[in-house]
Design a protein that fits this description.
mainly alpha; two-stranded antiparallel ribbon; 6 helices
Length: about 140
């Protein structure tokens, strides 16, 4: 895609929608794994591994552009302190990406107990960011 095409997309697409779609996709990918880990649905190595691969691929998307200056207002759950602590936010995002990659690697090895443990570790990286940077209610 050419630079002018990319610029047009970024100018015409609301960046809040981009980041909200990213996090919705992560949540929808993470949720069935959580149900499997909790025993709400029967454990299936093939499905779990597929879901971890999906999560890992989605996690690597460059969502950072969705946090551009002046995108903190509007219908969002992103707390304003993201923009004043972007280095910490980026570090937490990088931690999540690494945990998602490790989860996919662990699941591919086929050990359900190790997969459950790594799932919990990946969830911990989500929580670390949510605690600091996600409001439970929409802001503004």
């Amino acid at each position: 895609m050419s630079g002018s095409s990319l610029a047009h997309i970024e100018q015409s697409e609301p960046l809040q929608s981009l980041r909200q779609s990213y996090f919705a996709l992560l949540g929808m990918t993470f949720a069935p794994m959580g149900d499997m880990v909790k025993g709400k649905i029967e454990w299936n190595d093939v499905l779990f591994t597929t879901w971890t691969e999906d999560l890992n691929h989605a996690a690597q998307f460059a969502v950072e552009r969705g946090f551009a200056t002046d995108t903190e207002k509007g219908t969002t759950r992103a707390k304003p302190n993201i923009w004043s602590n972007m280095e910490d936010f980026q570090r937490k995002l990088d931690d999540f990406r690494a945990a998602a990659a490790k989860l996919a690697e662990t699941a591919a090895a086929g050990d359900p107990d190790a997969s459950r443990q790594q799932f919990m570790a990946a969830g911990g990286t989500c929580k670390a960011c949510h605690d600091e940077y996600k409001s439970q209610d929409y802001l503004y």
